[in-house]
């Protein structure tokens, strides 16, 4: 039995048919040599036999006047969770995207363990895919990534098959609370409340000082982002798009200007989104604002679940060269991080929950077009395994994150590193962004331009 | 532009992730001679080209302080509505059921025209299927059946292909209101209100008179049905089961006792459900109660949309022979119909909305187990075409209704007649009825027993 944390519960409380709160991963594999459909069917049979471990065997139980808890589902139904799908011929990547967009739009059954696993057969060029969907109330990107790594192997021998739901051992206890949930533990309530109060005070002080006294224009003030086509009321259907680039090249782009990989991702997304919007006749004069989730775990922490906050990062100005844009965003990011430095986790989480709550409120009251959106898109970076991975002897070729969108912002770009590549998973509201794949094309173009124009990139 | 009626809007208002309010039809076809996967892919391409007509091109638009209306969706997206799915090999009926259970559990996107069409490839024995899902706010069973008939042909030539969304002509105007919605038309508001008041008074008077003065124990009083495993809180996932029998045999079963086809269906469902429950250790001492929807259209009416009410029918006693059970149910049904005879449509609709509202209220307050359920299951009978039908030259072999479940009652059995057979579509909450297919087996057994024991049946 595990209590949910405040943040876990927020992902349940803010969820609606228009804003499902699950995250997912797509893994694309190559069939082992000499294996075909019969091998996949055998794999499927074997998967159904694997028993789930915590939290994959647990379902929600509401508690009167408290946060819900997770209890073992005594009627666990493997046929419900483990699914087999076949793409129509010829099995193109576009057909896969279209299938995933539908699967990703569907709410999960809250009366069952909050995950689904889909084996997808029939992808062109001897490939198959896994689509793994888990509710955000159960895990954040870092935990998802850890589970994905644990469920694949570094050897091609195919002996160590362990699907994501078959947990390696009893997981770390979730009671070691470092975030907002420390507020719930009476023993240090006073100390935590003091941290929260002081921390929020420090944050506000820093914000005002940096922005107005020191004239730091790279700080994103609340409600300072422009309204764009992405600031639309949320609707239930989704579009997906995927692309990937060599990790080393992306890192090299930032090298000469001291920018991080993350800065380069933000700059490419920013330039691409500006181009995409301008092709639709939209040219926001102000910088766009990205919400960037930040993992709050200390290095080497074993803690699972949700332990994130987020920074609002002001992106580049309308007309900038790749170098200028990257420098501006790198400065914004540093400002944002410095804002949170030395601030207790409890306060930074409260501040970022405030931004999410504001967006939810704005969306709930249909204030799109009246209230400026707290941010224009989410850009998230989740580190994955560095070396080639296998499942049951099949080599993992590509792996894309498929995340969720937030209220008042119809786009999420999450990147995931694996085996020397950085994989971009784009998720958008289908009504607000019916031509999401055009944004993917803009990202590909901008990537080439950055590679040509940045000094360190070649 | 069409206003929704009160009943239409009720199907939207009472909808939740646990209680989706759509209805669906499953059609199973045989591939034309010499045709295979390539032909199906061509069919799919052709279907995508067919433009939608009203209401298949219309989406909801909320109106402040009024019922929503339907307006043309200017960004109609055929790829969203028209979908292609392939079953994994070997493509058994069980795999089809499992796929449909998932598709049927998913809410529809309220920001788009409220329908989905799925072509399902890969069914064993040279078969393929259509699964057509439409929101109940747009149509009831009778309208669905009419649209299904219009979208198939009586000739095998394959020239007249017209999918369900390609409407034959401008449909009948929905303003001719005979039900509860007449209340909205100011011109006859007073007359309608008088009808409603008088009618509800008559209904109550009849109920009291028949039950208590005349001692008619076959009348179902509100809140008189026993609690069973079906009276469970609704959950999001579904189980489906299908069976079918010769129509002539079912009619013959009722013949000697003057029972209708509908009475026979109710009696078979009742006996089968009692057996199913008793195998799980449940033996309700009181009769079960079925909610039976009734089409309010005068014969030959062209009116589309929702125009139904429903009767609560007391089913048989625990231990009865097929003949006794059929006679008892036939008497209940007559009592129920007489209750509504000469009662204005507006009053019978209000009464049955009251029962539905009571169930929704009970479920919303989690009163399962405290409040007796207003009914135990829904049993619905929708007449379909009598002669063999074709689509694009493929012969329709079977066609099953896939309806929705109601609050406080986890089971819906809808039957649909076609080409000399009666097709049973069972839909249940998967948590309340994890072994729904066992109920299908009970129905098959009971059918055989009825056939052996009823005088007219052979």
TrEMBL record, chains A, B:
Residues 305-449 form the O-acyltransferase WSD1 C-terminal domain. Keywords: Acyltransferase, Glycerol metabolism, Lipid biosynthesis, Lipid metabolism, Transferase. It catalyses: an acyl-CoA + a 1,2-diacyl-sn-glycerol = a triacyl-sn-glycerol + CoA. Pathway: Lipid metabolism; Glycerolipid metabolism; triacylglycerol biosynthesis. GO terms for biological process: biological process involved in interaction with host; glycerol metabolic process; response to hypoxia; response to nitric oxide; triglyceride biosynthetic process. InterPro entries: Acyl_transf_WS/DGAT, CAT-like_dom_sf, O-acyltransferase_WSD1-like, O-acyltransferase_WSD1_C, O-acyltransferase_WSD1_N. Transmembrane segments: none annotated. PANTHER family: O-ACYLTRANSFERASE (WSD1-LIKE) FAMILY PROTEIN, WAX ESTER SYNTHASE_DIACYLGLYCEROL ACYLTRANSFERASE 4-RELATED. This is diacylglycerol O-acyltransferase. It comes from Seongchinamella unica.
């Amino acid at each position: 039995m595990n209590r949910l944390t405040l943040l876990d519960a927020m992902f349940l409380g803010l969820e609606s048919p228009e804003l499902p709160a699950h995250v997912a991963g797509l893994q694309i594999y190559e069939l082992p040599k000499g294996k075909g459909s019969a091998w996949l069917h055998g794999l499927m049979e074997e998967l159904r036999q694997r028993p789930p471990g915590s939290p994959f065997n647990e379902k929600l139980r509401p508690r009167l006047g408290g946060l819900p808890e997770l209890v073992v589902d005594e009627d666990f139904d493997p046929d419900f969770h483990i699914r087999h799908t076949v793409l129509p011929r010829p099995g193109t990547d576009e057909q896969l995207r279209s299938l995933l967009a539908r699967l990703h739009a569907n709410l999960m059954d809250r009366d069952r363990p909050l995950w689904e696993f889909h084996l997808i057969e029939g992808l062109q060029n001897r490939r198959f895919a896994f689509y793994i969907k888990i509710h955000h109330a159960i895990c954040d990107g870092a935990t998802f990534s850890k589970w994905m790594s644990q469920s694949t192997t570094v050897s091609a021998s195919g002996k160590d098959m362990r699907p994501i739901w078959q947990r390696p051992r009893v997981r770390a206890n979730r009671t070691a609370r470092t975030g907002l949930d420390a507020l719930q533990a009476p023993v240090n309530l006073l100390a935590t409340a003091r941290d929260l109060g002081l921390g929020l005070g420090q944050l506000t002080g820093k914000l005002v000082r940096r922005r107005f006294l020191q004239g730091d224009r790279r700080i994103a003030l609340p409600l300072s982002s422009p309204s764009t086509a992405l600031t639309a009321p949320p609707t239930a259907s989704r579009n997906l798009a995927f692309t990937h680039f060599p990790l080393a090249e992306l890192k090299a782009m930032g090298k000469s200007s001291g920018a991080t990989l993350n800065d380069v991702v933000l700059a490419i997304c920013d330039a691409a989104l500006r181009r995409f919007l301008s092709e639709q006749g939209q040219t926001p004069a102000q910088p766009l604002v990205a919400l960037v989730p930040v993992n709050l775990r200390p290095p080497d922490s074993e803690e699972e679940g949700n332990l994130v906050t987020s920074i609002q990062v002001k992106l580049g100005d309308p007309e900038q060269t790749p170098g200028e844009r990257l420098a501006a965003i790198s400065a914004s990011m540093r400002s944002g991080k410095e804002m949170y430095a030395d601030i207790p986790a409890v306060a930074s989480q409260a501040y970022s929950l405030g931004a999410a709550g504001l967006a939810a409120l704005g969306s709930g009251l249909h204030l799109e077009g009246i209230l400026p959106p707290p941010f224009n898109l989410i850009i998230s970076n989740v580190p994955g395994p560095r070396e080639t991975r296998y499942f049951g002897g099949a080599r993992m070729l590509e792996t894309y994150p498929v995340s969720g969108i937030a209220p008042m912002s119809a786009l999420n770009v999450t990147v995931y590193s694996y085996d020397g590549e950085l994989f971009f998973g784009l998720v958008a509201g289908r009504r607000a962004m019916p031509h999401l794949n055009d944004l993917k094309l803009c990202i590909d173009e901008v990537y080439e331009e950055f590679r040509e124009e940045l000094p360190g990139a070649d």
